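Before relying on records like the one below, remember that each one covers exactly one chain. Contacts with other chains, cofactors or solvent are not represented anywhere in the record.
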Amino acid sequence: MTLPRGALPAGTGTTTSPGELILVVEDNDKNRKLVRDVLTFKGYEIIEAETGEEGVRLAQERHPSLVLMDIRLPGIDGIEALGRLRAEPGTRGIPIMAMTASVMTADRQRITDAGFDAYQSKPIKVKDFVVAVERLLDHPRK
């Protein structure tokens, strides 16, 4: 899925540093490609994982500025991966945004209660997604 010309409206410019590293943990190829295309267009460096275990390993090794975490993943799910990252001193300060197609109120509450820094429903709305990413990068965890 290639972004059409003008897909990112004016006013979504980032105040964060170009080239900041973002880890995308997503098992769906099309979703991963869309997120990668949007964020690389905005100047971010992207690394990718298809499983929760691989996402935890990459976060520990590369220390990204932000993690975008699908909830339903093969192996450990996104909530378990979040718990592992929050348990480690080297990764507990990384902001993590949950990304899920689930819109059930109970699921959203479970995601919020788990301690994610933000929530993004899928399919993503590009402008809202970019704003949410920029907000997390501009206001990192304490």
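The radius of gyration is 14 Å.
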